[in-house]
Amino acid sequence: MDSAESSTLAAVLQRLEARLSQQEDFQKSLAAHVVQVTSQVQELHPRQPLTNPPPGASSAVPAPAPPAPARCSEIRIAPPERYSGESGLCRHFLTDCSIHFEHSPHAFGSDRARIAFMISHLSGRARAWAMAEWARDSPLCMSLLAFQEALQCTFDPISTSRDKAREFTCIRQGGDSVCEYAVRFRTLAAESGWNSVALYDVFLKGLAPRIQEQLIPLDLPSDLDSLIALAVRTDNRIRELASRRSHGPMGEATSGGTEAAERQIFRQVPADPPRSPPRGGEGEPMQVNRAGLSA
């Protein structure tokens, strides 16, 4: 290779090297420009995720957690009424607390928390007893069932099923309305556990005589609820009629009166008093100008 060819080859290599250097500088400038544009876009949209993440990047970036469902506002139940140890009311207090525990289970993580809630709603002698048990760290304050049983045994007289049955069979309407009597009857019936046939007879037997007299000629319904409804309607009519008689005129028949009521009203009107027989020498029963008819 002569010197001319060598110089020509060297010139070509220099031109190629210069061109490669220019391309390298251009690529660096382009990469810097891309980085600048990317940073500007991220500043404008900081929360917008990349639409096309590079391969393999999706496994490294955790998926966003789904939004938590909105919790509906819970229905608030009134707290139990304070119990001071009255006989016959302990069971109602225990039932009140059970409803509260069932409705808000997340608020009571242990039996001791439930017992503390019950003690906070006691008063009087019942609170004094419970506070003494709590202060001495009694085993009763570790078990909800044991605390409930002890509270009931302490302040509610122990009544056997026979005592309950005797109280139930002796229930009477008395001077109450049938509606009030039915409320007392249903309360005791719920605790008795008797069947519907026995409850039917007990309710009918406890009605006041004035109601029974009205029901005797009727064809009584077969179920207890219908019997109670019939007795309530009968009692309401009797009371309404009595109210009309007491406020209405005695000589007029009321608009809602019945024949029996009218007869009773007429019986209340006194008859004319009988005349006394004439005395001797005072004249005969019928006189004209004090002259006897036989004169």
Automatic annotation (TrEMBL):
Show where the Retrotransposon gag domain sits. 117-208
Name listed for the protein in its UniProt record: Retrotransposon gag domain-containing protein
Q: Where is this region: Disordered?
A: 41-70, 241-295
Which Pfam families does the annotation name? Retrotrans_gag
Q: Which residues form a coiled coil?
A: none
What's the source species for this entry? Oryzias sinensis (Chinese medaka)
